[in-house]
Amino acid sequence: MTWEGPKPISRVVEGLSRLPGIGPKTAQRLTYYLLRASREQVGELADALRDLKDNVKLCSTCFNISDQDPCHICTNPRRDQSTICVVEEPLDLVAIERTARFGGVYHVLHGAISPMDGIGPDELRIRPLISRLGPGTKVQEVILATNPNLEGDATAMYITKLVEPLGIKITRLARGLPIGGDLEYADEITLGNAFAGRS
Amino acid sequence: MTWEGPKPISRVVEGLSRLPGIGPKTAQRLTYYLLRASREQVGELADALRDLKDNVKLCSTCFNISDQDPCHICTNPRRDQSTICVVEEPLDLVAIERTARFGGVYHVLHGAISPMDGIGPDELRIRPLISRLGPGTKVQEVILATNPNLEGDATAMYITKLVEPLGIKITRLARGLPIGGDLEYADEITLGNAFAGRS
Q1: pLDDT band for position B1 (cuts 50, 70, 90)
Q2: Do B44 and A11 count as a contact with CB atoms less than 8 A apart?
Q3: From the CB of residue A31, how many other CB atoms can be counted at a distance below 10 Å?
Q4: Confidence (pTM)
């Protein structure tokens, strides 16, 4: 055991170094920064952390994280309730909201099918999605915005099989070259898909 | 303004992105990690942050940060009170403690002389250091462990001028090649110093 500083300091170092991507050195640097920061700044961060666990819940309709249930996307009268965009994680939803190109509502699966990690369809919020598409539904299109990788594709395929019999339109996000990218640096699969999907 | 998620989330994202080296993307990733982390883990971090500001003070002898005054290095009867190691920052002290090669006590300056940044000797804890070396002192050696750069050298020089008349031994940390380093990759100044200081 090396000396890590007084207890109040080592507690913060420990707490921070448990965060992903933050090693003990970075945790120490951040802690010593906080020691010099204003009492207000540190107090505000501590309060925000407390609040995070106390006041964040899942929307019971779309399973997005929210401070109200149903969330303010599901209850927004200007959002098109007939189009559901299905994403793996809340952060994917945030990324799509940033584009300001989607005016429908969401469904957050909280993961993707991954037999290697022991995650099957029942671990995800797929069943409630199907319920939203049941008799009397207003939904006309389901956009599958799972990640463009093995797990995302498997999940999309699984959902497609369940949704198809309901006669609801299913689409997937386009695949191709990222804007601003350089053809020279595109991986062969992206480039191949871009060729196949040329328009 | 893009949508950053519900208020409790954006508060944590904001708080984290004010930390050095943590951009908005990383702050967001950490926040969503914390959302999934256990209530205990997040609560512990929040408490530790509060505690950091409430229970950490400066030792009135050596000015190291501590939860008690005088600190547990200054009050440790097994530490050699006749040798003071002068460092710029509390983190430097932690680094030296890790080596387990120093059994004396410390003096933390909280910075280095840097006219460019408007930091003169009076902004540092140099005066209290000189007081520790006054009449009746037990101190026999002052080790200047300021950083091996312009500011550190200027600070060491300044302190040397003040301490020399008191007849107390002054030393500086050795300079040379870092252990485990490769001669090929050593910068010319380090290599030059290593030559000059060869033994």
Answers
A1: very low
A2: yes
A3: 26
A4: 0.72
